Amino acid sequence: FQPKLMAGKRILITAGPTFEAIDPVRGITNLSSGKMGYAVARAAREAGAEVTLVSGPTALPTPHGVTRIDVQSAQQMMDAVNRAIDGQHIFIAVAAVADWRVANPSTQKVKKTDGEAAAKGPELQFEQNPDILATIAARTTLAGHPYCVGFAAESENLLEYGSAKRERKGIPLLVGNIGHHTFGQDDNTIVLFDEHGHTILPQAPKLTLARQLISEISKRTSKHSLF
Ligand code: C5P
């Protein structure tokens, strides 16, 4: 009998895009489909973990046995993660979080006007969203902090940017998507960056890669303080 790799572990995952309101019916979002994050949640559950998935708006069904918390904005995602983080062994940030939100969203639908103002369009101001992953990675509690895994979608120089980003975020493992055409696709190619360097996981369906990732995380966390 082989015990499941993640039996007894609690894993918190973010997935999907965020949606930043401009007014009650409009907003700013991105092309993340949530497929990779949902695949990671499914793979973690299959490996025996207790999985909580904090998800931005997606059209995907909840993976079997996974607890899902729906949010829209980056701030709501941050709040949901803060509420759920205590007691988690692993935090995997897969969501494509908006870096900025509209600072002055309108409480009423913005109306079209005539003349010069209409031609110019409304003026939006932006303010920075919290970096959820960096916030959790920097958190220290008496119980230690969860093993944090980040994702990166770079359009160029992934190998260079990937290892720099891992260090900047203060995390032990960063997963890079090769190319930025992965949004919405079923396949992906990923690179794992850790303190030893990088490893490429060749093109495969997202669920296959997610299972490989969970097994890589399991290897690396067997030495982690919380385990
Ligand atoms: O800095 P960048 O956005 O490229 O970093 C991507 C990684 O950081 C992903 O793991 C993403 O989920 C996470 N992130 C986050 N909160 C943000 C921005 C990114 O958790 N505000």
TrEMBL record:
| Catalytically driven reaction(s) | (R)-4'-phosphopantothenate + L-cysteine + CTP = N-[(R)-4-phosphopantothenoyl]-L-cysteine + CMP + diphosphate + H(+); N-[(R)-4-phosphopantothenoyl]-L-cysteine + H(+) = (R)-4'-phosphopantetheine + CO2
Query: What is the required cofactor set for this protein?
Result: Mg(2+); FMN
Ranges of residues in domain DNA/pantothenate metabolism flavoprotein C-terminal: 6-219
Q: What's the record's note on cofactor binding?
A: Binds 1 FMN per subunit.
Annotated pathway, please? Cofactor biosynthesis; coenzyme A biosynthesis; CoA from (R)-pantothenate: step 2/5; Cofactor biosynthesis; coenzyme A biosynthesis; CoA from (R)-pantothenate: step 3/5
E.C. no: 4.1.1.36, 6.3.2.5
Q: Where does CTP bind?
A: D99, K109, P130, D131, I132, L133, F151, K165, K169
Query: GO cellular component annotations, sorted alphabetically?
Result: phosphopantothenoylcysteine decarboxylase complex
**Which keywords accompany this UniProt record?**
Decarboxylase, Flavoprotein, FMN, Ligase, Lyase, Magnesium, Metal-binding, Multifunctional enzyme
Q: Which residues form the signal peptide?
A: none
The entry's function note states: Catalyzes two steps in the biosynthesis of coenzyme A. In the first step cysteine is conjugated to 4'-phosphopantothenate to form 4-phosphopantothenoylcysteine, in the latter compound is decarboxylated to form 4'-phosphopantotheine. Catalyzes two sequential steps in the biosynthesis of coenzyme A. In the first step cysteine is conjugated to 4'-phosphopantothenate to form 4-phosphopantothenoylcysteine. In the second step the latter compound is decarboxylated to form 4'-phosphopantotheine.
Q: Which family does it belong to?
A: In the C-terminal section; belongs to the PPC synthetase family. In the N-terminal section; belongs to the HFCD (homo-oligomeric flavin containing Cys decarboxylase) superfamily.
Name it.
Answer: Coenzyme A biosynthesis bifunctional protein CoaBC
